[in-house]
Amino acid sequence: MKQVKQQEIAKKLNLSRATVSRCFTNHPGINPETRALVFETAIEIGYHHLSNRTSKNKIEQKTFGVLICTSEEEYYRTDYENSGKSIFKGISELSQIKKIQLSIHFLDPSNTLISSKNFKDLINTYGKLWDGILMIHPLPKEIVDYLVLRYPCVSTVEQRSSINLNCVDVDHYQGINYLINYLYGYGHERIAFYSIEYKFLQSWVLRRAGAYFEKMTKLGFKIKETDMINVHPNSMGSLEESFDQAAKAVKDGVSAFVCAADHQAYELVKGLQKRGIRVPEDVSVCGFDGVETPDNALQICTVKIPNYDIGYFAAERLFEHSKKRFSSTHHTLLGCSIIKGDTVNINR
User: Fold this and answer.
1) Rounded to whole angstroms, what are the CA distances from 109 to 113, 128, 153?
2) CA 312 to centroid of chain Cα atoms
3) What is the mean pLDDT of the chain?
4) CA 229 to CA 15: how far, in whole Å?
5) Exposed end of the chain (fewer CB within 10 Å): N or C?
6) Which of 276, 198, 203, 273 is nearest to 238 (CA)?
């Protein structure tokens, strides 16, 4: 059964089955791009590689569970790049160097209760194999709290609400600081923060919103309640409602938006344009992530997150943490760089 499934991966990627097999056994001759692509395809078709816990030399080989909290549709969408793919490439590279087996699974954000059958089946079937867990994208607090009590865990997103959780993430304040300084340098002072509603509260949105609030306060700017769209959980609106709020804010004097993510920024640009508001002539729009620009879209002003490095260092941290289970908790924040793009009005 395992051979048949590996053959399916090989056929889909036009690779030999030997190459696919070597990806799962961390053969040094396989390049990181190929290994990551094989792992991603394995996720897509539902193949999970189960290996013996000991090698031929009787040296125990570690197995890390990789939990990707997003729907498969979202992960494989083609209109916007999913950051999880780049993070996973870094994880797969470190796993090859350290000869770590990866057990990769999606967690649907709409069905992530501890009591759910899907979660119970996952833990009962694969959990006994794991020496640690890597988390890609935020998981609900209930799930995180359950896992950190049972496994060494490292998240690729800061989740401060959960104790004893190691994190490797981008420096959110540095990124927001770059964007607001750039906007301010061209005369923008009424700068709003924009996000969208998610299935559960996203810690990375709060990190970036908090950085926005801190930076604007340091500059001495007052922030109107209406200038922070879809941040507080009690004041969320639909996508179209958020576009209406943004358009109203522009008419009220907002000259620029800092969005919590690039995909939000690209959608906001389209939503404002449908309402007769031009970008960047009437209002500037910035994102955060540095994803590849979609077809027929302006390159937004954004910050580039080192996702590959985040994945690599998260896997490295888990490898060390799994050898020393109760070592101190680490939060590692990596730097980012600004991409100036074409969506900021520099002629104010």
Assistant:
1) 9, 23, 19
2) 14
3) 87
4) 47
5) N
6) 198
pLDDT above 90: percentage of residues in the chain: 54
Class of the 172-304 domain?
alpha beta
* Residue 186 burial class via C-beta count within 10 angstroms: exposed 0-12, middle 13-18, buried 19 and up: middle
The backbone region for 151, taken as left when phi is positive above 0, alpha when psi lies in -120 to 50, beta otherwise, is beta
pLDDT in tens, 281-324: 999 999 999 998 988 899 999 999 999 999 999 999 999 988 87
Look up the CATH number of domain 1-49.
Answer: 1.10.260.40
Residue 11 in tokens = 């056929």
How is the chain split into domains, by residue range?
A: 1-49, 172-304
Which comes out higher in pLDDT, residue 132 or 80? 132
pLDDT at residue 1 in the model: 38
**CA 78 to chain centroid:** 16
Preceding amide of 280 cis, omega within 30: yes
- Number of other residues whose CB lies within 10 A of the CB of residue 176: 27
Q: Structure tokens of 140?
A: 């609900």
- Report the alpha-carbon distance of residue 51 to residue 24 in Å, rounded: 9
Q: What is the pLDDT of residue 12?
A: 82
pLDDT level of residue 48 (50, 70, 90 thresholds): low
Q: How many residues does the chain have?
A: 348
pLDDT for the residue numbered 60: 63
d(CA 307, CA 133): 18
Q: Which amino acid is at 147?
A: L
Calpha distance 344→158 (Å, rounded): 29
Low-confidence winner among 53-67, 104-118, 123-137, 167-181 (lowest mean pLDDT): 53-67
Q: In this structure, are residues 156 and 87 in contact, taking their beta carbons and an 8 Å threshold?
A: yes
Q: Is 327 exposed, middle or buried (0-12, 13-18, 19+ CB in 10 A)?
A: exposed
Is 77:45 a contact under the CB 8 Å cutoff? Answer: no
Q: What is the pLDDT of residue 253?
A: 96
